[in-house]
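Exam review. A common question shows you a sequence with its C-alpha cells and asks you to describe the fold in words. Practice with the pair below. Do the first one on your own.
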Amino acid sequence: MDRQAARSVEDIPKNQLTGALRRGSVKKHVAAIHVSGKLTLLQRKLSNVLLLNAYDTLITNQVHMIDARTLCLMIGYNSNDMDTLKASLRGLAETVAEWDMLDDQGQQEWGVSSLLSYAKLKGGVCEYAYSPALATKLNDPKVFALINLNIQRKFTSGHALALYENCYRFVRTGSTGWWPLDLFRRLMGVDGSDYYAVYKHLNAKIIKPAVKEVNKTSNIMVEPEIRKRGRAVTDIRFKITENPQLAILDLDDGAGVRRSDVYEKLQGLGVSDRLARQWIAEHGEDHVAAKIAYVGAQRGVKNPVGYLSAALREDYAAENAVVPVSSERAKVLAVVRDLVAARTPTQRDADRRLFMSMIEDPGARADFERHGWMSALNTGSIKAFWAELEPEAFEGV
C-alpha cells in the first residue's frame, strides 16, 4: 500500500506522540498493517493510486472520486478497458487489511477491514470509499508514508512490488525484523501453496527474483537473511539500505527539502509543510522558485498561496513567454488548453504527474517542467497523451 512505512518510535518527534508512546522505553514499531498479498500487480498499483488520490481528505470525506480514464492511464491499463478496471476494483473490495498496533494509550489494538468498503463507476468517474477504521489508520503519518508512484510504475512483478512495500516501511530502522515464513508467504500471496511450502522453491521463484527487481528498480536495497531450526528454515528478515542511485526519487524524506531556501519561502507564504514538500518534489526547486518570484511580482494578490497553486498548475509565467508557434502547433495547444481547463484540480495533478513519469529524455523533462503543457519539445507526446484520453478532441487538427 501507498503509505506502508512504519517507523521506530525513536524516529518520531515527541510532540507527535501521546500517552504511553511518549515513554523512551518503548522500542517497538508503532504499527504494522498487513494486506493480503493475493493482489495482481495492477491491483496493487491501483490501490496505491487510489490511496494517494484520497489521502488529503481521508478523514474529512467519506467518499473519494477520480476520473476513470486518468486512473487507468496512471495504472497502465488501456484507458477504455473498463472490464479490467472493474475486476481490479472488485479484487480490492474482496481483499483484507489487518493491523496489530499500539493505540494512543499504549494498548494493543487488532483490527481487520476490507481494503475498499465499496467502489463504483458512473459517468466516467470512479467513486470509492474506505471503512472509517481503516481510513484513520491510513491517515496516520506515524503509520504510513507515500510510496513514489514513479517508482511503482517501474515494477513488472507483483511479488517484487509486494516485497518493496513491506520492506520500505522499515527503511528507517534498517531491517524488517524476523518474519515467520508463514507470514512472509501470506504477504507475498503464496500461502496455501504446497509448492511454495518448500523453502527451496520459495527462494528460487519468489525471493531471489523479487529481491533482484527491488534492488534494480527502487530507491532501496534489500538483502534477505534466514533463521533455521535444525535444517529447516523458519524465519526470514530483510536488511534495508537506501539505493544511492535512486534515493533521489524518494519523495517521502523531507529532511533535506526542509533545509532549502525554496521551502523556507513557501513556509513564509503560509504553505503547509506537506504541500510545500509535494510542490518541490513534483515541480523541482528551480521551477517553484520561479513561480514564487512570478507571484511576488503581481500586484494586489490577496491570496498568495492560492495564486501560487494556480501558477504552478497552469504554468502562468510560461504563458507570458514569447515562443514562436506554428499554426499547426497553435491549434494543438488551443485544444490542450481547453482539455486542461475542463479537468478538476485532482485530475490536472494526476495528468501532469502521469505525463512526467513517461518522459525519459532529460531535456524534454526539463522543458515540460518549465512550460507545462505548452512545452515545445513535447508537443507530439502531449498531443498523443491527450488524444488517448479524448480520442475525438483533435479531429481536424
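Now try the second one, then compare your answer with the model answer below.
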Amino acid sequence: MQHFDLQADSDLQAACQTVVHLSQHMNRLRGEAVQFQQTCATLDRGYFTPSEDDQVTHLWVSYHKARNALLELIHSTRQSVGRDVEDHPAEFLCAYAAAVVLVDAARCLRDLFSNNALVRRKLNESFDCYGISAGSFDAIQLTLTSPSNATQLNRANHFYTDHHDSLAETAAGNPVLQEVQSVIDTRLQRVQVGPRQYIRSRIAERRRDFRQRILAGSLQQLIYTVQQWGSLAVSAISTNPSHIPQLPASIAAELSTLLRPGDIFVTRKDTALTNYFLPGYWPHAAFYIGEEQVIESLKDGVRVRSMISPFGNDAVAVIRPQLDPAVITKGIDRAKTHVGKPYDFDFDFTRSDRLVCTEVVYRALEGVGDIVFTLTKRAGRQTLSAEDLLNLAVQRKHFHPVAVYCPSHGNQLQGDEAMCEILRKTMVK
C-alpha cells in the first residue's frame, strides 16, 4: 500500500482525530463507570441519592453523546464502500476504529451493569429532555448481541488482522493514522467474539423479558455493513437516512441579507445524527463571525466553518447580542482563541480546553458589555443550552430576535413577535 497523504484531506484528518478523541473519552467514562459500579455494589437501600442520580445521569448522557458522534462519523464514511481499501486506507481505518470503540464501550456497559438491577433500571429510564428513550440500555445490548452484526464484525476483524502489516505501512509517517490504528489494536481482543457466543448472549438478554418495554421505532438499530474488503460500519439511526437537511435557497438568501457579525445561529436537524442528545427542540448553536463564516463546535471540534454548516439544517433561528459592533468584535476575537479545541462530550463548563457548541457562545460573550449568562444544572453539570439562548432573546434580555425559519410553523422567515411565538411553541417548557 502507498503512504496516505492525510494532510490533503482536512475533513478526513479531523474525522481521524475525532475517533482518537472519542476513544480517549470512552476510556475516561469507563474509569468513572468502574468507580460508580464499585459504589453501587455496596448499596443495599435499593435507590440512588440525588448526587448519585446526577452521577449516573451524567455518565449515561455523556456516553450517548459520544456513541451518537461515533455513529455519525461511521455514517459519513460510507462514500468509499465498495472501493478498494488500498485506495482509501485512512477511511477504512477511521470507520473501523469507530466501530471497534462502539462495540468495546457497549460490552463494557454489559460487563459492569447487566447484572445490577438497580443501575440497569436507572439506565432504562427515559431521559426525555435529552431524547433518550426508555429501555435504551437494553436496546443497545440487543444490538450488541445481534448474530448478523457478529458475523459482519468478524469479517471486519479478519480483514484487519490479515492486512495489519499493510495498513501499518500505509499509516507510517502519519501520526494521526498511527494513533487510529493504536485505538484498534488496544481493543481488538475485546471484539474477537464468535457468532455462537453472540447468540448465547442474545438468548440470555431476551430471557430478561424486556423487549415489550421498547416501543417499536423508538430507537434506531445500529447495523454493521461490512464489505469483503473491510469494515465500514453504517448507522441507520436516522429516522430518514436519505434526508439531507438543507434550508431552501430562497430562505438562505434572505437570511444572508440580515446577518451581522456576532449573530448566533440556533439550529435543528429533524432526523439528526448530530444532535448529540442535547436538550430541547433546538439543540445546537453556532457563532457568526462575518465574511460568511461561523465558529462552531461539532464532533470534530471547534472549527471555522462556511455557511454550508448553519444552512445545512431543517430549521434555524438567529438572535443578536444587544451590543455595539465594536464591543461584539471583542467577543469574536475571544471566540477565535478557541478554534482548534476538541468537542466536549463531557459537557463540562468548568474547563475550557474542550467546548460544546453553546460554550463557544458562552466563552465568547460572557462578561462582554453587560452580558451575564445563568447556567442551569443538567445531568449533574452546569450548562447553557441553545434554548437558554433563545429564551433570552424572547425575553429581550441581552439578545434581540432576528429571524426564524421553522417549516412546521410556516414556509417563510418570521421575525419580531411572530418569531417569538414560534419559539414559545417549539421550545421545551
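Model answer, second protein: DSSP finds 15 helices and twelve strands in the chain. The two ends are 56 Å apart (CA to CA). Full marks require stating both points clearly.
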